[in-house]
Every structure is written in C-alpha cells, then in structure tokens.
Amino acid sequence: MNLKGIHHVSALTANAQENYRFYTEVIGMRLVKKTVNQDDTSVYHLFYGDEKGNPGTELTFFEIPMAAKNHPGVSSISTIGLRVENDAVLEYWKKRLDDHGVKRSEIVERAGKKYLDFKDTEGQRLTFVSDETNHGVSSGTPWVHSPVPKEQGATGLGPVKLTVRKPESTVKVLTDILGFVKTDRSYPSPADNQPDILVFETGEGGNGGEVHLEERSDLPPERMGRGGVHHVAFRVDNKEELYKWVEKLNSLQIPNSGFVDRFYFRSLYFREPNGILFELATDGPGFDTDEDLDSLGESLALPPFFESKREQIEAKIKPLNTKRS
Q1: Where are the stretches annotated Disordered (predicted)?
Q2: Residue 289's domain spans which residues?
C-alpha cells in the first residue's frame, strides 16, 4: 500500500474553449480526454497530459460556466508544478511565456531545484520545475505533435503546494496515514513572519512525488472559483490495493467516498483536516481504453455507464472543437 507519486490535479475553469487553447497551444500539453463531469454531465471535464496521459502527467479541468474568480487563501492547493527536463528549458519558457503575454516570475531556486512561476488566463497558479538535479519518480514523454518542441515540453506534474493554517493535522495525514516522508529540504515562505515551507515525498520521491506544505496564519480561507484547484490525486497501483485503502480509512473512521469507478481509473476521495480534498487513483485502465491512441481527445468520450444517455448529454453540452488537423 505504497503510494507511487502524484496521479493528477483537477482544477476549475469557467471557459473550456479558452482553457483548451491555453493548455494545448501555449503550454503544449496534449488533450488526452474530452469527457463530461461525471457528477454534472452538462459540463466538460478536460484531461491534459503527455503523449498518452500517463499517470503523473495529468492536469484536468472541470468547466463551471459563470464561476466567480478564485480568492486565494488557506485550506487550498495553491500551486501546481509542471516538470521540464533541465534548467536550460526554463530559459526557453521565459521567452515563450513572454511571447504569449503570460504573467511570470523570474527563475528562482527552492530547496535545490529551479522554478519558473506563471499564471494562466484565469489566474491559475502554476510553476515549471527543472529536473536537472532530480531523482525519483519517472517523468512522462511530451507529445511529438505538440507546438512546443519535445525537448522543451512539460514531462509531467511536479510538486503540489498545499497552503493551510494548522499544518500539524495535515502532516499527520500525509505521514501517518498516507506514508509520505518529511525531507530536510525546507525553504523560506514568500510571506513575512511565516514558517519555512516543508517538503514531503512519496514513492520514489523527487519532483513527481512531492507535496510542499505552506503554513499561513495571515490568510483567510480560500473561496474557490475559476483559477482554483479542486483536488489532488495520488497514485495507487491497482484496484485491489485501492480496496485496501478503503478498508484502512474506514478502520480509522475517516469519512470517505468509498470505491468509485471513473472508468479511466478507479478512485477514493476524502478530506484531510484542513479541508483539502485528496483522491487516491489507480494507474489504469488508462485513456486509450475507449479511443485510439492517435485520436485521443478529438471526440466526446463517455464512460459505458453514460453511453445510453449520449444523445441527451450532447444536446445539453456546448460544442468544443478539439479536432486536430
């Protein structure tokens, strides 16, 4: 029952069309699945990733039309990391982000790794992290047909930062329940008079298995909206292991969703004490289960349990052209 790293991160957008443009044309990720929110089939759930959407590379978005702007604060997933091959690639991204009018920072070093922070068009907080000195969880493979050269492309998800008011309870869940290990690679907070940010890792560790924990006593609770993050998922090997996690959480009397079949993977959801939603998700079956690898994301894909409702779903959902020439 050892978690293997970060599986995916799911965030909110108010505009699926603009979201698709930004993450495919600017960031150069591949749309590997265009489907619907399984809890509200009238809106999209978009999955971006590497060449086939391997676990550990998936950045997903629920479309919530008319969603208010996200108001940052505690009890939040406050930064999403995207891995790149080395330090030199960060220089490439400085220029590319500037060319596309994207707000960014300068390159900074945190806990021995170099980062380039930026925001998408809705204020989503992201950062490129260099794998130059990285060891641990393997990265993915950028899509060869991306507008970004393969050598400069995002290779997967990097560290995810959690911002909380009371870190002790979150630390207990990460270490005592989920099996994360606290490292000695802390780094200074960006805010005055706040503790250093702590670094935890799971699986083989490194950028693909890290959670950074930020304590902030100076912020209100986050009011989630467009540009906010809904949840982070961690990798479980298979559904048999996931059932064991259900048993473990139940034995600890931790409220949870129980086993959930998302078709492309199987899931388990629960909230840690500061209110952040965690998911445990299996590595398979994968996104090429119901589509050819060459045409992933080009059509509206529905899990078999929604296929009988396709006509009604397509009648309610607004068109989103994702056909690639």
Answers
A1: 132-157
A2: 8-316
